[in-house]
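Q: What structure does this chain adopt?
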Amino acid sequence: MARDTEDQVTLSSDTLAALQEFYAERDRHAEKLEKLKARVDNPEAQLSIHAFSEDWNESQFWYSDETANLLALQLLDGAKEDSVIAVVSTPSVFVALKKIMADTKYTGPKPQVYLLEHDSRFAVFSEFVFYDFMHPLKLPSHLKGTMNRMICDPPFLSEDCQTKMAMTIRWLSRTSDGGPRLLICTGERMETLVNRLYQPLGLRTTTYEPVHEGLKNEFYCYANFECDAWHWRSQDGTGKKDKDHR
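A:
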């Protein structure tokens, strides 16, 4: 005999509690993103990378403020209004760039900046471009060959990750005007591979070692220019001053 009403689905108390926690966490996440967006849109807000918690599943470790500011200033040094900066998987430097250019005391150029990043939380910024190193060339076509200043910090110390991200950098690079001003920050044990991958762009190991807030691994900064903050690192690990500036 057919029933007049559909069977009622009854959830166990444990399942119901888990479901409620799932929805509560989703709501908390949405509320946090709304607050972050409000801070981003408010020019008077003191934006900090620490508004975004590190996600170790994404291999995220923020630079110290000193390191982030130093690297951001090197990207801006010598830049022009028509310069285009790509910040690849390095959101702490991106936030530092935003803060520097928003400062009322800053009188330098304000070039276009793009943040290529896998973490969708950073989509609160209009400059955000979703990026997955597993698909190194899956990016908006209008970005190809447009970047004359770039920084990249590959999230994983593996040959596969480093090689794929080098493909991205080459794809983004503006080859005119002597090529891009380039910074790569990654682990010391990647040195041989990094220098080989970026040799066509003039990259070399420098004496500068980036500092992270919560990571103690030995990191090197690789660049295709020297500056007041670093020199080329010689084979014995010391700095050696050259005259090649970009």
